Amino acid sequence: MLRNKAFVVRLYPNAVQAERINRTLGCARFVYNHFLARRIETYRQDGKGMSYAATDKALTLLKREEGTAWLAEVDKFALQQSLRDLERAYQNFFRTVKKSGKKVGFPKFKKKRTGEAYRTQFTNNNIELGEGRIKLPKLGWVKTRGQRDMQGKILNVTVRRVYEDYYEASVLCEVEIPYLPAAPRFAAGVDVGIKDFAIVTDGDGEFTHHANPKHYRSTLRRLRKAQQTLSRRKKGSARYGKAKTKLARIHKRIVNKRQDFIHKLTTSLVREYEIIGTEHLKPDNMRKNRRLALSIGDAGWGEFIRQLEYKAAWYGRLVSKISPYFPSSQMCHDCGFKNPAVKNLAVRTWTCPNCGETHDRDENAALNIRREALVAAGITDTQNARRECVSPALAGNVR
């Protein structure tokens, strides 16, 4: 099945190419802010806002004006993408977001910041891939390092300045991704936590504990020292720039380590199991607990679930989510007794008052999640589960 897949490579531009990338980022930011201001002013005067078509036409005229003729020197697709981003920001503001039920705030003016990016579209072979290099509009051939298995039809490329003198390109391609063959195991229950990142069980009494690496917390001392050094530097000075780059480099390393850990774990789960049962987590709400906010954010549960879902869709697996209100930790998986005392997170092991079975909190939750996920997937006869087709994606996989 054709899927959109992004390949990230690091760019090594020369001095001229780096200057053009920075100029393109500035022009894209200028176009976004300029037309946001015009749309606000037009609405104040006429009571009607500018449409995307009107801003696109105005951009063409803006490039011909003497004071802004420099806009024509950069990649035109990057400027058009800024207009699309502005239009999408307005659309998100005027409609209710389905997932959260909340409205997105009014579009804000962009500031020069770390992590800026621009996107360019593939048209008439203006983007090409070579051995250790990539050809981009207005830049020419740029040296790269990273993904070597890029394939498929190129759709667009996003160029990002991660921090000073560090650039990345995300190449979005349309790739044919076949379903994986039948997995060696059928269903797994996954309980995520802070002490252990994930506890996985197949329901046969075997549990796999994946330790929480705590990438952010383990680097906290270095981050504090780098932040303190930055705060002592004079803003705008050369030493301030060096300290800011050093801090950004530490943050980037934390992100890379977390992504690497989550990618390896999610890939192994998708290869090992046909059905993966998880909780329907709401990390944003959970971070309201000030005592656990740092640990929850450091774990990256939201990214873990996101990767599980898209990899399952790619490779013909099924992620079955259970209700966030299901008492997976409090319910005895043997007799179904609900013990409200287990709400206390300090209780790591407990004995069921009804049947006398002793439970490990996380392992018991994983078993309950697995059973409830199978029910949510429409599987009630677990003895014959291998012979049931629970999803069109699993039609050729379920044994």
TrEMBL record:
InterPro entries: Cas12f1-like_TNB, RNA-guided_DNA_endo/Transpos, RNA-guided_endonuclease_TnpB, Transposase, Transposase_put_HTH. The keyword Isomerase does not apply. Signal peptide: none annotated. Residues 1-48 form the Transposase putative helix-turn-helix domain. Keywords: DNA recombination, DNA-binding, Endonuclease, Hydrolase, Metal-binding, Nuclease, Transposition, Zinc. Residues 301-369 form the Cas12f1-like TNB domain. The keyword Transcription does not apply. It holds the Pfam family HTH_OrfB_IS605. GO terms for molecular function: endonuclease activity. In the C-terminal section; belongs to the transposase 35 family. In the N-terminal section; belongs to the transposase 2 family. This is IS200/IS605 family element RNA-guided endonuclease TnpB. It comes from Deinococcus antarcticus. The gene is tnpB.
